[in-house]
Each structure stands twice: as structure tokens, then as C-alpha cells.
């Protein structure tokens, strides 16, 4: 699931990060579209989904971009940039909620498609409470439960980032790990059940979104820290051989295990399965992510030299917010119009859904790229137009202002 990350001038972009985010968007789209391709493409690298990578990468980009902005422009400008981004993400979430509660709801009522009516069950039974709760980011329907996380994470990021830049990241990471550990014992759910009635909140816990905020904040905070270190141009991390070997072994075992057994690692034991749980970011899943992260960081220079650049992925990754929102709109429409995939449905319908969806997403990415280019040109023109002539003799009328 992105989301979303701050924009920045093309010259400052890391094409490798854009390509990775583009890959995460492609995997999420395959997973969320109701086609026969959803299961085979889910968690292709082991017991880790695209959502974990996307959250970590988005935190990294936020840390890198805004730490650099704080050094160049100061604390207040950095805070303002964060909060502008929060407003943009919130408006995207609000727009998708209104689309779900109007267009998709109408289709659901007319067609009585179980796949979409089940997704909107709470709204269809409690429309007013659902609408208010959703706009307050409390009620999070399935598929629309990732952007509320981003809004919360972006809101706390200025405080966290400034503390890390001023006082170091040791205490921040210790607190983040402690929250993740408490999340494994469902502290967030316990607190919600205890406090929601006192606050007059009627949204059931099960309708607040699948992602455990206390667990998933760890990925964002870690990404924020790594991005801030990148902005400070710290030397690259050199992993000891024992850690690299352990990462290779663990990643290989999880990769083979996932493709032999399936996406559920231990089908016969629900209790042991919780050690790989996605929504609580359980320990064995987190270790799998760490192993892949170590390998990606260690082999990044080699991959940059030898692997071909896929410009389409870079284009989609650079426009992560509009592409992310568009893929959710397409998934909701596909669910409402075609329902869940069935053995009796023609495979050509699923192929058509995928082809049309990716064509739309790439078009959205190109359009976003062009709009960003035009906006940058307007900013440059305004900056050039605001240059004041120095005191002294008036230059000839044909003299041009510097650009």
C-alpha cells in the first residue's frame, strides 16, 4: 500500500528508489485487482508484501527530502512542507472515500455484488457514522486503510525528524521498537476498546483498518532515520559477512517456502501463523523484511551497474501518490463491476482488467510528470521575475534578467 511521498526536483531524485516504489505499486495493483493474477503475484519475494516495502521507502524519502530542506531552509519551512503534504494526502483520502460512498455504493446497490457490498458493509448499515468516522480517519474501509496511516505518520514526522537531527536517533528507535513490541500483544486494540466509548466513538475496532498503527510506525520511523542519514551523506553501511550470510539464508528459505507452500506459511496452525502476521508486522515477517533490506543495500551498487533501468517503473514511482490513489479507484471499480475472480469467469476478462488498469496508471504517471514539470517551470519563472535589479545605473532595455 502509498502511498505517497514528498515530491522533489528531478535532479535530486534517486532513480533507484523511484524504480523500487514503482515495483511496489505494480505488485500492489496485481494484488488488489480482483483477477486470477492476485494470488500468484502476492508476496513474490517471501513472506513480505509490497506494503512493507512501500511504507519503508516512503519514510526514507520523507526523511531524506525534509532533512535536506531543514538544512537549506530552516525548521519552519520544513514543518510547513510536511503539513502541506499532510493536507494533500488527507484530501486524496477524502476524495476516494466520497468516490466509494457515492459511485461505488450506487453500483453495489444496483448490481448487488457481494464482493463490494461486503467491503462496504458498515457504511451500508451506518452511513452517517461511517461517513463522519471515515473523514475523521477512524473508520477505514478495506483498501482505503493505508492513507490514514500516512497522514498520522506525516503529522508526527516533523517532531521526530527534528529530534533525531538535534539529539540523535538512539532514543527514537528504542521507543519505536518498544511500541512495535507492545503491538505484538495487541496494545492498540486494548486501548481503543477502552477509550473509544468514553470519547463517544461508535466505530467498531474491526472497522478501523487492518494495519496496526503501533506496529507499522516502526517501518516509517526506520525509513525516516535512514533517509535523514542519507541526506547527511553518511558513508554507506558495510555489513559483516556473518550478517550477510544469515540474510541470504533466511531470505532464500522464505522465498522457497512461500512458493512451495503458498502465501499462508503454516496452514495447519493458526497460532504459529501469527508469527508471520502482516497486520501486526509479526517478528518472522519483520526478519524476512530485514533480510531483504540487507541484501538490497549490499548489492545495490552491483544491481545499479548490471540491471537495466525500467523507465516505466521510475515514472510510476516518481508519481507515487496519484498512481497509488488511481490503483485503488480501479480496484474498487473492478470489484463493483466484475466481483471476485471465479473459475467460471473467462481469463480474458482478467487479462483485460489488468491491461486497462496498467495503461491507466501509466497514463496517470505521465500526466503527473507533465504537471510537475509545468509547475516547476512556473516556479522558476516567478523566481526569475522576482529578481531585483541592483542599485546603480539602469541597464539597457534589452538586458535580460538572469534565469
Q: Keywords for this structure?
A:
single chain; 403 residues; mainly alpha; disordered C terminus
Task: Write up this protein.
The chain has one domain (10-376). Helix 1 (15-32) packs across helix 15 (311-318) and helix 3 (50-73) packs across helix 11. With 403 residues, it is mostly helical. The chain is built from 17 helices and no strands. It is globular and about 55 Å long.
Concise overview:
It comes from Pseudorhodoferax soli. The protein contains 17 helices and no strands. With 403 residues, it is mainly alpha-helical.
Oligomeric state of shown chains: single chain
Mean pLDDT: 89
Class per helix and strand makeup? mainly alpha
User: Mind telling me the C-alpha Rg?
Assistant: 23 Å
| Element-by-element helix/strand order | HHHHHHHHHHHHHHHHH
What form results from the Cα inertia axes?
globular
**Helix segment tally:** 17
Query: Strand-residue fraction?
Result: under 5%
Helix content: 55-70%
Overall tally of structural domains: 1
Unreliable runs: 1-11, 388-403
**Terminal residue distance:** 40 Å
What characterizes the major β-sheet?
Answer: none
Number of strands: 0
Organism: Pseudorhodoferax soli
InterPro entries: UCP028704_OpgC (IPR014550)
Transmembrane segments: 20-39, 45-68, 89-111, 131-156, 168-185, 205-226, 238-260, 280-300, 321-341, 347-368
Keywords: Membrane, Transmembrane, Transmembrane helix
Amino acid at each position: 500500500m502509498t502511498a505517497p511521498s514528498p515530491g522533489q526536483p528531478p535532479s535530486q531524485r534517486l532513480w533507484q528508489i523511484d524504480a523500487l516504489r514503482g515495483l511496489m505499486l505494480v505488485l500492489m495493483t496485481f494484488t488488489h485487482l480482483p483477477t486470477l493474477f492476485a494470488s500468484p503475484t502476492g508476496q513474490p519475494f517471501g513472506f513480505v508484501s509490497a506494503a512493507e516495502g512501500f511504507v519503508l521507502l516512503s519514510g526514507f524519502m520523507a526523511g531524506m527530502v525534509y532533512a535536506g530542506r531543514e538544512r537549506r531552509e530552516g525548521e519552519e519551512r520544513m514543518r510547513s512542507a510536511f503539513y502541506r503534504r499532510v493536507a494533500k494526502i488527507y484530501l486524496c483520502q477524502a476524495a476516494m472515500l466520497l468516490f466509494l460512498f457515492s459511485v461505488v455504493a450506487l453500483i453495489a446497490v444496483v448490481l448487488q455484488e457481494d464482493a463490494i457490498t461486503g467491503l462496504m458493509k458498515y457504511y451500508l448499515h451506518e452511513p452517517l457514522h461511517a461517513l463522519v468516522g471515515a473523514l475523521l480517519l477512524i473508520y477505514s474501509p478495506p483498501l482505503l486503510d493505508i492513507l490514514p496511516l500516512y497522514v498520522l505518520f506525516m503529522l508526527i514526522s516533523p517532531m521526530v525528524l527534528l529530534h533525531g537531527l538535534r539529539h540523535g536517533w538512539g532514543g527514537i528507535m528504542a521507543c519505536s521498537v518498544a511500541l512495535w513490541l507492545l503491538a505484538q500483544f495487541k496494545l492498540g486494540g486494548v486501548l481503543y476498546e477502552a477509550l473509544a466509548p468514553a470519547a463517544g466513538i461508535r466505530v467498531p475496532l474491526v472497522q478501523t483498518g487492518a494495519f496496526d498503527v503501533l506496529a507499522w510506525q516502526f517501518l516509517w520511523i526506520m525509513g525516516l532515520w535512514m533517509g535523514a542519514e542519507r541526506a547527511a551523506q553518511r558513508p554507506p553501511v558495510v555489513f559483516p559477512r556473518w550478517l550477510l550470510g544469515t540474510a541470504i539464508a533466511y531470505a532464500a528459505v522464505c522465498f522457497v517456502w512461500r512458493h512451495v507452500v503458498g502465501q499462508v506459511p503454516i496452514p495447519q496452525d493458526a497460532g504459529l501463523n501469527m508469527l508471520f502476521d502482516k497486520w501486526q508486522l509479526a517478528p518472522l515477517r519483520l526478519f524476512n523484511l530485514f533480510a531483504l533490506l540487507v541484501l538490497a543495500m549490499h548489492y545495490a551498487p552491483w544491481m545499479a551497474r548490471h540491471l537495466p533501468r525500467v523507465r516505466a517503473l521510475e515514472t510510476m514511482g516518481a508519481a507515487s501518490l496519484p498512481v497509488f490513489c488511481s490503483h485503488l479507484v480501479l480496484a474498487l471499480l473492478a470489484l463493483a463491476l466484475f466481483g471476485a475472480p471465479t473459475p467460471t469467469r473467462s481469463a480474458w476478462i482478467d487479462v483485460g482488467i489488468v491491461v486497462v488498469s496498467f495503461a491507466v496508471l501509466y497514463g496517470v504517471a505521465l500526466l503527473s510528470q507533465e504537471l510537475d514539470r509545468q509547475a516547476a517551470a512556473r516556479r522558476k519563472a516567478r523566481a526569475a521575475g522576482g529578481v531585483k535589479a541592483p542599485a546603480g545605473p539602469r541597464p539597457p532595455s534589452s538586458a535580460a534578467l538572469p534565469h
